[in-house]
Amino acid sequence: MTVKLLQAHDGYKANYLYSSDCATEERLLLWGFASEDLTGGSKIVHQGPLSTVVVNSPDIESLEYLGRSVLVQDQTGVQYLWDGSKYALPGEGAVPDLTNPMLDIGDMIAGGVAGAPTRLATPGEGSFTLQCIDGNLTWVENTP
After folding, report:
1. Does residue 20 sit within a domain?
2. Is 25 helix (H, G, I), strand (E, B) or coil?
3. Per-residue confidence at 57, pLDDT binned at 50, 70, 90?
4. pLDDT, greater one: 134 or 77
5. Residue 136 — pLDDT band, cuts 50, 70, 90?
6. How far apart are the first and last CA of the chain?
7. What is the spatial order of strands in the sheet that 50-55 belongs to?
8. I need a surface site. Which of 41, 76, 106, 114 has the fewest CB within 10 A?
9. Coil/strand/helix, residue 60
10. 75 & 119 share domain
11. Per-residue model confidence (pLDDT) at position 82
12. How far, CA to CA in Å, does 141 sit from each of 25, 102, 107, 121?
């Protein structure tokens, strides 16, 4: 069972969707520290430099921007992206679908005009260093 905390508990803020053993959750409900109504609740899962906020889908519309290192997903695992004014499903309006410009093994993606994904092809055989020259990424052959 999952409950929504109505006040801070065990290091978690209010509105956190809290899962623990049944006895703990039942005590939190009995004491009025938690609710079985999960509306407006969120859960943050930390994964290295990124965090995922799990929110009930009806509450996603009202979320404010949470930052670049935070992914928003609903209780079913569907992820939402920030479109400049709200979190939305990818491909619904302002959130563009990205295309993959890579063609060969070893290709990389670099930011092109207006941040468009652009192919940076592998340089081929030899020893190369990736450098930024006049604002453009380019492979430079290493000389002995």
Report:
1. yes
2. helix
3. confident
4. 134
5. confident
6. 64
7. 42-47, 50-55, 70-74, 79-82, 87-88
8. 114
9. helix
10. no
11. 80
12. 62, 21, 16, 14
Q: DSSP character for 74?
A: E
User: Is there a single domain that holds both residue 65 and residue 123?
Assistant: no
26 and 77 together in one domain: yes
pLDDT band at 95 (very low <50, low <70, confident <90, very high): very low
Same domain, 74 and 125: no
- Alpha-carbon Rg for the chain in angstroms: 23
Let me know if residue 41 belongs to a domain: yes
On whether the CB atoms of residues 7 and 33 are closer than 8 A, the answer is: yes
Q: Are residues 123 and 72 in the same domain?
A: no
- Closest-CA residue to 53 (of 67, 69, 73): 73
Rounded CA gap, 122 and 118, in Å?
Answer: 13
Question: 61 and 119 in one domain?
Answer: no
pLDDT band at 29 (very low <50, low <70, confident <90, very high): confident
**Which pair of tokens denotes residue 16?**
């956190």
Both 118 and 58 in one domain: the answer is: no
Structure tokens at 97: 């679908």
Q: Which domain holds residue 84?
A: 2-88
Q: Are 121 and 59 contained in the same domain?
A: no
Residue 79 lies in a domain: yes
> Does any domain span residue 97?
no
**pLDDT, position 15:** 74
